[in-house]
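User: Hello, can you help with two protein structures?

Assistant: Certainly.
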Amino acid sequence: MSFSNSSKSVIVPVFILVLFGLTMLSSAGIVDSQNRFGSSYYYFVHQLLYGLLPGLLLFWICSKIKYPLWKKLAVPLLLLSLGLLVAVFWPSLGVAARGAVRWLKLGFLSFQPAEVLKLTLIIYFAAWFSGRSERVKSWSYSVVPFLVILGFVGILLVKQPDVGTLSIVVFIAIAMYFLAGAETKHFVGLMVLLAVVFFLLIQFAPYRLNRLLAFVNPSADPQGIAYHVNQAKLGIARGGIFGVGFGQSQQKINFLPEPVGDSIFAIIVEELGLLGGAFLLGLFLWLSLVLIKISRQTGDRFAQLFLLGLMVWIAGQAFINIAAISGLIPLTGIPLPFISYGGTSLAILLTGLGIAQNIANRS
């Protein structure tokens, strides 16, 4: 297999991110893994077998498929992912956990359809906006169908409920709409409308309102609604500049909720310090710049929008996770790409990057 300079630079940051993620997952999850499953490295092994290995296979396959095929398959892929999202609510297929139904079980295979939806939406919007560039500025041909699609997806995700994923989906969609050349007035109008919708979602769900209250005043109920973010801040503060050492976190020992999920950045900073956190941020920045660079090298509009959508997904989700766990924005429950535990997320991210690899090879 031959690689151009640009395609090599795609692989290197991804390889380092995945390696870093597995390493930190093995540390962050060691206590919870032992308590829940009787094995200190359950999370690590599960992520390796059901996330990384299928992800690498999908990366390789997608790097070999000529990327224009994805444009042709955009509509069927979107319909398939929406169908999977609907199937979650079928009693014999959907798997409930912690008051939410976000998993789909098909035989021996269990996965999160919402993660698949993120990638298929990027493919669909890239195909849609690249195929009707002259109509992007039209209200009836772009804004209305755009809202219909987002509305349908939103209903399904709120029903689960999974507003965290909905916020990422909306963020990706709005960014791609703007990058495709949307009218400023349409863009501003959409932002106002979506802000109102999210405000209503917060108002009508007590746990979402509690997260907002904990953000506004984390000292009001330190052992209640603000416990999660306060424990995360303690971990970050304890790490200082250089950290307490790999594997030496105290917060992961039954103090910090979700140590392998959305809280893992706090464990990273506690063990590796602000330098470790800065290193991770640098990796995300590196990968984002590589995707932007490749998008500029290709003359294909679909490829450009796909790469930018992929960049927005990875960088945006990483920023939201890190900002939330650092107390800069309300908690969202959104995992950290490549780092948090979740086989579906890792496999789908690598699938999208496999498509990016093919674009890089052909640029």
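That covers the first. Now for the second protein you mentioned:
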Amino acid sequence: MDDNTTRPTCGIEYTLKFMGSKWTFLILRELFSGTKRFGELKRGLKSISTKTLVERLHELEADHIVERKLYPEVPPRVEYTLTPRGQSLRPILEAMKAWAATGDPERV
């Protein structure tokens, strides 16, 4: 018997489960401006822990939202960029930003 208790039952539930961490949106915001290295992401997200950033990037990579490119150099160089699927989230985040401005324009 298949246990569906942990599987999302609709698109909204799936999206909320996928975007569950506040850091997801903030990582996407950083990557909308272009390809970034780990250190650049960390500096842009001042209060994120290294562990959390690593975990979220791995999850976003597994969901085909972020692409990780490792260069065969010493020291290793890794860059993160949004995939087309990741770029498709831009209108959603822009809509959220616009909605936030309707309540308090100072917060945007």
